[in-house]
Amino acid sequence: MLDYTIKAPNFVKTAVRRLHLDVPRQNVSKPLVTDAHAIVPIWFTLVALLRSLDHLEELIIIRLPLCQHYTHRDYVFPQTLIDSCSGYLPQVKSFAFEMNCQDCSIGIPDLFLSTAVNIQHLKLSSPHSQHRLSSEPQQLDSCNLSNAVKGPKSLYVKTYNSVNGNETLTTIADQAPSVTRLYITPYQPNRRSIKACFHLFCHQAQGSSFWSFRLSCDGSEEDFEEAGDMDAWNSDNTFDNFLSALSRFDRLETLDCFLSIKLPLRPTRSSNSFSSPTTSKNDSSDVKIPQRFAELCAREAEIQSSMLAAAQIISANVPTLKVGYFWNLRPAFKNPEKSIWDRWSWYCDRNDTSADVQIDPVPTSHKTKSMNNQDGQKEWKGDTYSGNDSEGENEDDDDSDHDSD
Q: How many other β-carbons are positioned within 10 Å of the β-carbon of residue 76?
């Protein structure tokens, strides 16, 4: 960093609009590594570099040599440097903090957001350790989003499925009520694989066009059988609290909080449902294929109908909302890592008197293994980290065991 700051031609530094910082800790002798003030000159070198980039607009941080988190009172760690410099990032509009170290994911954003006054796009990761879960309310409070001029337009937050999602939404609404695009992505504690926090259970009585909904917001209920007696759904106010939290945003246009749609499992047919003792094997297959296709079409229509009803309720509570997303899992029971998430888009076209909600009939599909994320996952222990680095490295692409739902 120092070499680039001093030797790079001015015309090169002036042209920099986007900067990735992926700088590991230096491999120096033990006394220097553990020096109480080791990160101070590194910090001022980094500030000098950023000051020299007059037209920098986007900053992405993956690793920094500021990663020192000794708790002894004599040691300088990132949070203690906050007031040492100011005004060096007035032009940066976009920040992405993608550090694996959980302590860096707490302290590093403070350093930069405390001096940024023009934030438009922000990506944060909630820190996690094996023994502690830090929720977004703590993380967002520490970043002082409310002190940023006008607040971010786009906010991407990584959370954990065991954290109360309604509390997360409420805190974000308090800190950044004018955000226009909000993305919340939940992961499993101690793992890198994605797992929904919000589960919206949907039920339609036989012969009725009315949908009933019940929401789980902390990942504790995943299967429809765990949603409880449907007669008692009206007494559960979790979905109402979800809508209330969303209504606090005054400019929200795009929302993706990884809301997973859950419908009752369809009845399982016996193996001889469509064949008689006199029906040949080939004839039986010929009958089952179109029947199965018809069932799949009916199931998809049912899913879309439930999403449309839910989207209409959500859009009615957020008058500015234009785009939303639902997620639906197609599990691979033999190997869950091969499961596929379908992401359904819905759109709200508004005029002065009404709102027309439409579901995009074609979802985008995402393999679970391609959605891994370990930002904020590793626990700092001196010069080493603990974390799950081997998960998912030996997977193949055989997706033949997916369920149809």
A: 18
